[in-house]
């Protein structure tokens, strides 16, 4: 049996040896900014303030969708797991909660419709990303998009399948 080398045993009355402190490093003096640099900093602060205000307005418009355990998407619907939608389209959990979702029986998983996710991502981009190029749908990798196979919602039959790569261009 190996020895316990990571713990050292000492006498109960032994005094711990104090560790030597590292010498303090003096602070560097602040660099004096020119008037141009101050103006640039002020502009950056105003832009960031506007972005924060826009984000607060956007979050105020988000209303959670009513969830029903008996709701099912029709056959042929393309969907994503909420975690994939968050990762690919850079959505927050609060934004994902505004989407209607189908809960899979006897499973913690749920599916949100791909077209709803795209609409939400476009609206967010239009509201928050001022001055940037228009929204471009990111290329979604194989295995993320699921298609509803049949209209039944029984656990004994597969209801969601992986979409083929030829279906990606037809959102």
Automatic annotation (TrEMBL):
Annotated Basic residues bias: 21-30
Give start-end positions of Basic and acidic residues composition bias. 31-41
**Where is region (Disordered) located?**
1-41
* Name of the featured protein: Uncharacterized protein
- The scientific name of the source species is Mycena albidolilacea
